[in-house]
Amino acid sequence: MPEQKITDQRRSDRFLTFTRSVEIRNRKPDQAVSVFVDEIIPRYVNWKIDKNSLPFEKKDAYTCRFKVDVAADSTVTLVYTMTQTW
Asked: Residue 2 has what pLDDT?
């Protein structure tokens, strides 16, 4: 399970902006892996990614997907900032 934390957050009555850090570890000593990190967005919310350390794909109106390639016996940290408006 990846370790996740919110490192920054700003909120008003019309928006929420947050920065999330997700650390993904591959403990396999001799095999690289690819994993998907999905951010599920609540309904009735418009969203955008303001900053990202890895490319993402907008799967649908409610799902943002990051593909993370992790080398054998290593760690990758995904960091992204999202703004949600309503």
From this structure: 82
